[in-house]
Automatic annotation (TrEMBL), chain A:
Residues 37-52 have a biased composition (Basic and acidic residues). The lineage of its organism: Bacteria, Pseudomonadati, Pseudomonadota, Alphaproteobacteria, Rhodobacterales. This is Cbb3-type cytochrome oxidase assembly protein CcoS. Pfam families: FixS (PF03597). It comes from Pararhodobacter aggregans. Keywords: Membrane, Transmembrane, Transmembrane helix.
Amino acid sequence: MDILAVLIPVSLFLGLAGLVGFWWTLKRGQYDDPEGDSQRILRGDYDDHPKP
Amino acid sequence: MTDTMTNPTAEPEYPALAACPACIATPSAVDRARAAAAEKAARIMLSVPDAHCALCIQTVESDLEKMPGVKSARLNLTLRRVSVEAEPGISAESIAKRLEKIGYPAYELDPGQLSMTETDKQGRDLLMRLGVAGFSMMNIMLLSVAVWSGATDATRDLFHMISAMIAVPTVAFSGQPFFRKAWAGVRNGRLDMDFPISLAIVLATGMSLYETFNSGHHAYFDAAVMLTFFLLAGRYLDFRTRAVARSAAQELAALEVPRAIRLTGEAEEPVAVADLRPGELVLVRPGGRIPVDGVVVAGQSELDRSLLTGETLPVFAGPDLVVTAGAVNLTGPLTLRVTAAGKDSSLHRMADLVAVAENARNKYTTLAEKAARMYSPSVHLLSFAAFAVWMWLTGGDVRFALNISAATLIITCPCALGLAVPAVVTAASGRLFRAGLLIKDGSALERLAEVDTVVFDKTGTLTRGTPEPVTLEGLSPEALAIAAALGGASSHPLAQSLAQAARAEGAIPAVLTEVAEVPGFGVQALWQGRRVRLGRAHWVGAEPLDVTAAYLGIEGQAPQSVAFADRLRDGAEEAVAAFKAQGKRVILISGDVPGAVGDLAARLGIDDWRAEALPEDKSAAINALQAQGHKVLMVGDGLNDTVALSAAHVSISPASALDAARVASDIVLLGTSLAPLPEAQRVSVRAVQRIRENFAISFGYNVIAVPIALVGLASPLIAALAMSVSSITVALNALRLK
């Protein structure tokens, strides 16, 4: 059961990484326009001239 | 912003023909105000209600970016708003015009009115708490699976310990919205849904901590965090629905900025209506809305009072006429002496009536409130009874009895109840928003479902409020040509509409000389040396008809009349027919003359109609219906409807309505067609049905789970299962809404 000493910190670290990622998307305003973003991703002209 | 903003049609085509010195002076004032507005407008927000698709994004953004002076444009499809970064000097108005041209009517938003940052912050705050709760829930769940599958002794204690380390900070952070609300409720002496929620979370965490330190078998950390997560999800949905509605309601409020032009000596200055004092002079340009109650001092014109009274026929305005705020000035500039502004004006008195009517409606209890009222006390009683009985049965084993009592609280906890209403309301209002209806008030959906009588206003609601000629057959080709030319020279709505209709008939405007608009009367000109006139009956020399009409006089010929009828709003027939098919009673109450109202009622197949109704009559009629036990839906747009709108059980107004009417109504129709109304009613009935089903589902789960908890058989596994399964069922049931 010594493996637990490695696995538990690893799983917690992964979870925390996910949480930090979520926090980052939140700060970047990625939930402000879910409907628009879902449509934008399908647009061809975006691939050629991506907007910041 | 200037007052022209509220009346895009009013400018910049000042009737160049109008023979008045004031008209020449006006553009400078407009320009000054516009320049002042443009200087600070580096970031311009416009509402684009018609944007709905991927193509819209592309069209709007690429078109705006081609516009000189525009740095970048971004369309937010969720809020249907475009935000434009432009160089100083680009006005919101010019952008709105450009968008209008490519088929997207746009309205400027006052960024000051939109307290977006605050709402955004609240939403992000909730989302962050939800995210933290989700993260903890997943990690604790992983650890719990090991415990459920039979970890014992030191391993179990270790896992409980780690769970505690994750759960305690999570509950302390994510549970705050509930704790705060529960505390506020307790201080005000009432127990709402938040109190049992907080109690369950705190008790579960506390008990589990105690058990962990004493190497107990059961720890409910997973349940406590899961509870927080699911309830926060419900809160967040609820918040989102209301935030979207609120921001749109603010948009509507920001659309209209009340301004007036004050005359001081020689100068004109745009001022806020609130700053006007009785006795001051105000200039109202053609096309402008009269901002105050007052008396005409100078000028001649015609007034469109359809928004005030429902009459379609414009009335003549000359010196000494008493006018009330809200009427639209049609042909000539008017100078008014203010008799009442602000609090004393007729507009404000109307607002007082509205406030009284709204008081009565606020007593409505929503389904969620009813459920909470039944639920909170019974849960506390149940949990306490379990504690007492087990204390007695075990002879004073506090730890065991507390465990049972906590398990009862957790199992009965309203995960599903907390999701039952928000999930359905989110689904339903999303559907209605796509159909072009904006729910301003949370309980409006439930109230709409109960409706059995529909009362319509006429002018501006069932009709567009824009008249069109009934027939042009009586006019000879040359008369038609003259009418097209004369009508095109005036800004009067009847003249404009006549010119359009004549051109549609194929008439080529005749060549006229010495064209002049005589404010208040009509337009006149010379045609092949003969005087021709288009205007009011006695000015042209004709017998007035009893319907809305314009008169065409050609020197040497008998005057001819063209009757006008109000054009039906799109979808009016469908809406009325669908409401009747649903078995609802449809009533038409208008302030217009009996002839016009009767015609329209016959056209739409409405048997029950009333004409010449004053605002008080309308609300009295609705109150009488409601006293008989009917639930009334009022659809109206005018100032004369506001009291009726707030007196009705639920009310809808089109986006073209006056500010006051939109504020008074629960639902705003964003598009121009009335067709979505019956569909909206149907959706609301379904939504309420789903809410009831959801309550039944969560009640059903409790019926099964509570006895298990009471006899002491509840394990953390059963609690976790009951909670997640009931929440997911409820959410799925809400999504079934079609």
